[in-house]
Amino acid sequence: MRQDRVTTLLGGATLLALAAAVVLGLRAPLDINQGSLVRLMFVHVPSAWLSYLAYGGTGLFGLLYLLTRQRRWDRLALSSAEIGVLFTVTTIVGGMLWAKPTWGVYWVWDARLTTTALSLVVYGGYLLIRTLIDDPERRARVAAVVGLVGTLYVPINYMAVEWWRGVHQTQTLKLLGKIRFDAAPVYGWVLLTATVAFTLLYFYLLRVRAILAAREEAREERELMEDLSPLEVARG
Fold first, then answer.
1. What pLDDT score was predicted for residue 230?
2. CA distance linking residue 14 with residue 56, whole number of Å
């Protein structure tokens, strides 16, 4: 009951934050050059942040599993990876919709875009590996290692626009050296609200997906015990 209450409260907070972000985004002034197209930034940037957060979570939860061997960390790692893949796709789609009117094409093999696409290969492989290994402990160990290595994507993707110059704009928020916000200041509060809303959304989805993963794991264990019972009877 307590778990359900926390999930409900977190979901309510997420919904309110998303609603606030939508209202602020729709009321934000139009950009002098891009017009209403600038509003894609309020989804594209927070989606990219959420994917970073999710992939970082996958690595962290995987490390915690390797250190403790507690299955709940493996379930959280799986949940976080799925969320990361979902919002990487959201980031790519939003970026393509933004790119066509500004660059003239939906896609270019720019360093930032290329590394983003590669993350789908890495974490798609992570999810695929989990389906190919039946033993739960071995599956969790292998997935944890892949998840840890995969977190290298986050700094590489973030710095791609600095290390390899391309058509993609530089970071909206520069974190290295002197922190600087490169978007128009009038959009700062909108982006902050949207980023907070997407962060809450991550934790809400993570909690819900982990609960479902625990139920799936319990069902697998019951089915395994049912399969073993006839064998034990035959041996007895």
1. 57
2. 21
